[in-house]
Amino acid sequence: MIRPGLFALLVAFALPAQADELAPVLADYWTNSGSLPPEYAWETSVLIREDGQLELKHCKGYETEGPACKQRTAKVSDTALAAIRAAATESGLIERPANETDTPMVGGGLTWGRVNLAAGTVELPSQPSDADVERVNKVLATIADAIPPRFDRFTDPD
Predict the structure, then answer these.
(1) Is the Cβ–Cβ distance between 127 and 140 less than 8 Å?
(2) What is the residue extent of each domain of the chain?
(3) Distance (Å, whole) CA 71 – CA 49
(4) DSSP per-residue letters across 100-129
(5) What is the topology classification, in CATH, of domain 22-155?
(6) I want to staple 99 with a disulfide (CB 3.0 to 4.6 A). Which of 20, 58, 129, 146 is the partner?
(7) What's the pLDDT tens digit per position in 108-122?
(8) What mean pLDDT do residues 113-140 have?
(9) pTM for the whole thing?
(10) CA angle at 149 for the pair 78 and 145, rounded to the nearest 5°
(11) Greatest Cα-to-Cα distance within the chain, rounded to the nearest angstrom
(12) What number of other Cβ atoms are within 10 A of residue 137's Cβ?
């Protein structure tokens, strides 16, 4: 049997570990410049967690780590989180997922994403079919609207 003092000590050490756990991801958003020479190329990924924590990573050239990459954090409002959930739910993309276009664009910049809901995952392809463009773009725009304006230089640096 564990003595009461030892039990309290074990619980005290266990609680901080739980506090450091990250909230589940609500939305992912990626955008890039497309195929360009390294000095002009860039890619940005944004992760928004259920608790409103936002993590942004912007890389220049074709680097994925190191000095060419900048990371930023922010807090997304509860209103913006609710708007993402509502747009994803109302899109009908869980019940009827978006299809990719039959005529993909080659070489240009792309934006795509994903929203994780209790009912399922909403995939937001970068080049949806004509029938799905409006539904996909509405959800992507709602995610983009949740990103603080001070990060615009990372999501559209041109």
Answers:
(1) no
(2) 22-155
(3) 16
(4) BPSS---SS--EEEEEEETTEEEEE-SSB-
(5) Mago nashi protein (3.30.1560)
(6) 129
(7) 899 999 999 999 999
(8) 97
(9) 0.84
(10) 50
(11) 69
(12) 15
